[in-house]
Amino acid sequence: LIGQLAHMLVSALKNVLVDATNEEIKEIRTSYENMTGELLERDIQGDTMGTLKRVLVGLAQGRRSTATDSASDKVIADGEALYKAGMARVDDRTSGHLGGDGTDIQILHQLR
After folding, report:
1. Best exposed site among 55, 83, 94, 103 by fewest CB in 10 Å?
2. Which phi and psi angles does 37 have, rounded to 5°?
């Protein structure tokens, strides 16, 4: 039961942080600190690990770029070009060192 509850809470936190603006995240952080006496970022660091920890901590900082859609399109195009230039040709022996196991990509897709 505790594992399921923790998974549900992390999932809810992820959904809230992904959709929130930087200003809303600042309000969430302040409310959390006022209600618990703890820092949201510190609690996330203590309750998660790995890539999920890095993603949630990054989101909780509320310093997301407010770039326009055209800038986002450029980032996507740059990522695709990098993939074609390298990752598409990396074999299984080295792919784990480059996120080739797909976990980073899966998490980022889940956050969309």
Report:
1. 94
2. 75, 10
The residue among 96, 103, 7 whose CA lies nearest residue 50 is 103
Residue that is written with structure tokens 């956050």 in the block: 111
pLDDT mean for each 10 residues of the chain (112 residues): 72 83 92 93 88 87 73 76 70 46 52 51
* Best CA proximity match to 29, nearest among 17, 40, 42, 18: 40
- What's residue 87's pLDDT? 63
48 φ, ψ to 5°? -135, 175
C-alpha span between 18 and 21 (Å, rounded): 8
pLDDT the model gives residue 84: 78
How far apart, in whole angstroms, are the C-alpha atoms of residue 16 and residue 24? 10
Contact 40, 48 (CB under 8 A): no
How far is residue 91's CA from residue 93's CA, in Å, rounded to a whole number?
A: 6
